[in-house]
Design goal:
Number of helices: 27
Oligomer: single chain
Structural class: alpha+beta
Number of domains: 4
Shape: elongated
Strand content: 5-15%
Strand order of the largest sheet: 17-18-16-19-15-14-20-13-21
Distance between the termini: 44 Å
Low-confidence stretches: none
Length: about 950
């Protein structure tokens, strides 16, 4: 009777020694396996960390692109007799509430606007100042005086008093040199006097512009609240005065200002930009939580930072979902390659394993000896991979679960396959002599295999259905989405199992055709293919690799095409103009552009929200007033859908007595169907209402204006009304109602960008007009760090998967070369030539290559379409219509080319090796 100790010794005896000797014999194969494992572990560990690092960079860029919208702004509370005290207290309160995450705090104060008669025309003005809340001398580095003298406190003899009751109150101020040049203000011959208030014939308050200055840094945070101190700023007013110029009050003159303008009449704010210099995504998330908490508890903080970060988080979820497909796809393909390498190792040792088993070795001892060989190798390789990743990506976080899975496959696959080889070579099971009993056992084995295959198919279907139903879900930092990533792998595995069932019938059909051909090549190739058609592991590896190559390429193509479509939809033409197009600069631009070379069409537009629909219906609409025929031409030129009847909205013939042709959104038409109107449908315009003649429906969405460059651009434009109504500008004007002035325009044509550049429009802060080019916005959106990192990852993933596909086929060729070599060597003694031998090799591998290519291509093209909602394409492309998968041919061709190249090289190398076989040795020994 054996004791447990005896059993343990029998199982483990000589494991280390035998493992070391076998490793030395197969050093080349083990070294290749270690290199494959090292590469797989490096990718599995590094890629999640690279995505995490790209997320940090992209979050910083998104906040920076948001500009002043992401700044934290606070207002002093209560009343005070001075300016500096409440501003300093608010700045200190901000510093206490936000100890980290915010940059230098800047306080500013400004008065109400008033009209000033200038040398050329009237302009709006107000006094404003920057308060030194952090450094008493900080303002000394803000401006440089270039003309006149810097403002100084007013001497006492110039101030009103009992002895000088007729003197006006005065304050010395400065004006920016750029604004002065625009207005024609000069101080060379003396100060420029501004009468702020007057009582009949007496001036009460006099602002004295003593000098002109230039900001040392126009982009400094001190000017964010006061752009009018840098240059002329366009404003919207009911009068013809549409420019605003600030009058700068240095801190040393604040006491004079408060005697003229009471403190309670000055609006004071403290602004702090987000410090993105070294901020990580975790830092920005913590800042967002603090902002929401402080805003909810104090009510003193206003910022769009939470909205900016929320939009970025949505994009990050989509990017991580697609990155999960690439990362786990590479890991799964590498793991299958490791399984093939383990099978190759077990095949080389089949004779030794059979001998051990014949001598009484247990399967447990076979597994232990195999583990004694693979565990040290995997641990050493994993240590190298971890050291390299930690050294090259310090501080980055990422999951190690994928790498652990790959390492587990590398450890267990050789041991399991060695045990299987030993068990199949020598088994204690007795074969029944009864034919019926043997048939019954074969039926049980077939049933078990079919059950297992059906289980894989059911799991694949369940994974796809689950992903479709749940949609896009967030994952933790550095993590991957296992269910989404498992769906294509399981689907490819199910396809491989289906191919294994279908391939034998196809091979038999091909064999019948080959049998009628002349020569030995075709029948031999068909005969060799019979055995290869049912090999599960090689076909599974090839199918999964091809599926993931095609899937990754399809995602790359879908994102790129979606970004181009988004640029067309967001911009709407080659160039768009937004802002004060009713000002002189805007009117001149709209007048010059139609005649510019290379400009095909110019569309003027205006969008009015909250327009009343009907009478007493409780419905509202977003009214789009556009040049309808030109808009139809512009959209057609960009390949955008054009509503039937859009161009006909501008048909002449509309007058004050006829309804205005209009297109309504389907949702609005459906709501109106339940409320029939008598006398025609009336839509509110500006201060009037017009009757419209519904000519059809429109798929146009509310225009979001100039598209931003941060993550908010991917958010759909919210529809605040019940629908959209589109009318033509000229048709609306013919009714006699007031037509809204255009606030946006689309310019189309090959020379549109050059024509707009030739206008020499001032910056948006000065002209009030924002210029957005279609190509420029597309480049900026595609150049976002997150989008760029994902595109790089997916493109590189396609290349890595193609290399793994080649390696898969090479391993299959090498693994089957021994048996194929014995057959071909024997046939060579009977006169088999090299051409027929190549045909036999190609025929044997044809089911594997063709089946894997077809199955993998179908899975790679279909799975993205099935799980579109879980890929988050709209957040990556910016397409407001939602994401759609764009099938790509080039990844299929890449996979086919990789398979063909690998097959050609492998067959050629095998032929060269077989040429060295000596036929005399084959005849003497029998086979090799």
């Amino acid at each position: 009777m054996t004791t447990p100790g005896t059993r343990v010794r029998a199982t483990t005896a000589g494991a280390l020694l035998l493992g070391r000797r076998r490793a030395a014999q197969d050093a080349g194969l083990l070294a290749g396996t270690a290199l494959l494992l090292l590469g797989a572990l490096l990718l599995a560990l590094a890629l999640p960390r690279l995505v995490d690092r790209a997320a940090d960079s992209a979050a910083r860029v998104s906040v920076e692109r948001a500009g002043t919208a992401a700044d934290v702004v606070a207002s002093p509370q209560g009343t005070a007799r001075d300016l500096l005290g409440p501003a300093s207290a608010t700045a200190g309160w901000l510093a206490a509430e936000f100890p980290t995450g915010l940059g230098p705090r800047t306080a500013s104060a400004r008065s109400a606007t008033f009209v000033v008669p200038g040398p050329r025309h009237e302009f709006l003005s107000r006094v404003a100042l920057v308060l030194p809340v952090e450094d008493e001398d900080r303002d000394a580095g803000l401006v440089r005086w270039v003309a006149g003298t810097a403002p100084q406190p007013v001497p006492e003899e110039l101030l009103p008093g009992p002895e000088r009751p007729d003197l006006p109150s005065r304050v010395e101020v400065g004006m920016s040199a750029a604004a002065a040049q625009t207005l024609g203000v000069r101080v060379d011959d003396g100060p420029f006097l501004v009468e702020r208030s007057r009582t009949r014939d007496r001036v009460d308050t006099l602002l004295v512009v003593t000098g002109l200055y230039e900001p040392l840094d126009p982009g400094h945070t001190a000017w964010r609240d006061l752009p009018e101190l840098v240059d002329v700023v366009p404003v919207s007013t009911a009068s013809d005065v549409d420019t605003l110029v600030g009058l700068y009050v240095p801190p040393e003159v604040v006491s004079d200002l408060t005697t003229v303008v009471p403190v309670e009449q000055l609006r004071t704010t403290v602004r702090a930009p987000v410090d993105t210099t070294h901020a990580t995504l975790a830092d920005l998330r913590a800042l967002r939580r603090t902002v929401l908490h402080v805003a909810a508890t104090s009510g003193r903080v206003s910022t769009d930072l939470p909205a900016v970060l929320d939009a970025f988080e949505a994009r990050l979820v989509a990017a991580r979902a697609q990155a999960s497909l690439t990362i786990i796809g590479i890991a799964a393909t590498a793991a299958l390659c490791l399984v093939l390498a383990g099978g190759l190792l077990a095949g080389r040792r089949r004779v030794l394993l059979a001998a051990e088993r014949a001598r009484g070795a247990s399967l447990a001892s076979v597994v232990v000896r195999a583990l004694a060989e693979t565990v040290p190798l995997v641990l050493l390789t994993a240590a190298v991979a971890v050291a390299v990743v930690l050294a090259t990506l310090p501080g980055a976080t990422g999951t190690a679960a994928v790498a652990v899975g790959v390492a587990a496959v590398a450890v267990l696959a050789p041991a399991v396959l060695a045990a299987h080889a030993a068990a199949s070579a020598w088994t204690r099971r007795r074969v029944p002599t009864d034919a019926e009993e043997r048939a019954h056992l074969a039926t049980l084995r077939t049933a078990r295999r079919v059950t297992l295959e059906l289980l894989v198919v059911v799991l694949a279907a369940a994974a796809v259905v689950s992903v479709r139903r749940r949609g896009l879900v967030p994952v933790g930092d550095g993590d991957v989405d296992p269910l989404l990533a498992a769906a294509p792998v399981l689907a490819a595995a199910a396809a491989a199992l289906v191919l294994v069932r279908v391939a034998p019938a196809a091979v038999r059909a091909a064999g019948r055709v080959a049998a009628r051909s002349r020569g030995l090549a075709a029948p031999l190739a068909a005969a060799r293919a019979q055995g290869a058609a049912t090999a599960v592991t090689p076909l599974l590896a090839v199918t999964v690799a091809v599926a993931l190559v095609v899937l990754s390429g399809t995602l790359v193509q879908s994102v790129r095409a979606g970004q181009e479509d988004a640029a067309d939809l967001r911009v709407g033409a080659d160039v768009r103009l937004d802002g004060r197009l009713d000002r002189e600069v805007g009117r001149a631009a709209l007048a010059a552009l139609p005649d510019a070379p290379g400009v095909d069409a110019v569309v003027r537009g205006n969008q009015l929200t909250g327009r009343t629909v009907g009478s007493g219906l409780g419905l509202s609409a977003t009214l789009l007033v556009v040049d309808a025929p030109e808009l139809a031409r512009v959209r057609a030129a960009r390949g955008l859908p054009v509503d039937p009847g859009l161009a006909a909205l501008g048909t002449p013939g509309t007058d004050a007595g006829t309804p205005v042709p209009a297109l309504l959104s389907p949702a609005l038409v459906e709501r109106l169907a339940a409320h029939p109107t008598e006398g025609g449908l009336r839509i509110g315009v500006v201060n009037d209402a017009v009757t419209v003649d519904v000519r059809g429906t429109t798929d146009l969405l509310p225009d979001g204006g100039a598209p931003p460059l941060d993550a908010r651009a991917a958010a759909p434009v919210p529809l605040e009304d019940d629908g959209v109504v589109v009318v033509d500008r000229d048709a609306l004007a013919a009714t006699g109602v007031a037509v809204p002035t255009p606030d946006r325009a689309w310019v189309s044509g090959p020379g549109a960008e050059a024509a707009v550049d030739a206008l020499g429009l001032p910056p948006a802060t000065a002209s009030g007009i924002t210029v957005t080019t279609r190509d420029g916005w597309a480049r900026a959106w595609a150049g976002d760090p997150l989008t760029e990192a994902l595109a790089t990852l997916q493109t590189a993933g396609v290349g890595v998967l193609a290399l793994l596909l080649v390696l898969t086929l090479v391993l299959v060729v090498v693994a089957t070369s021994r048996e194929r070599g014995r057959t071909l060597s024997t046939l060579r003694t009977l006169g088999l030539d090299a051409r027929t031998a190549r045909a036999a090799t190609l025929g044997e591998l044809a089911p594997l290559v063709v089946g894997g290519l077809l199955g993998g291509a179908v899975i790679g093209l279909v799975v993205p379409w099935l799980v579109t909602d879980a890929l988050g394409l709209p957040w990556l492309t910016g397409d407001p219509r939602g994401g759609h998968v764009v099938p790509a041919v080039w990844p299929v061709l890449l996979a086919a080319g990789a398979l063909l190249a690998a097959l050609t090289v492998a067959v050629a190398v095998e032929q060269l090796v077989r040429r060295r076989d000596r036929l005399g040795e084959v005849l003497r020994v029998g086979d090799r």
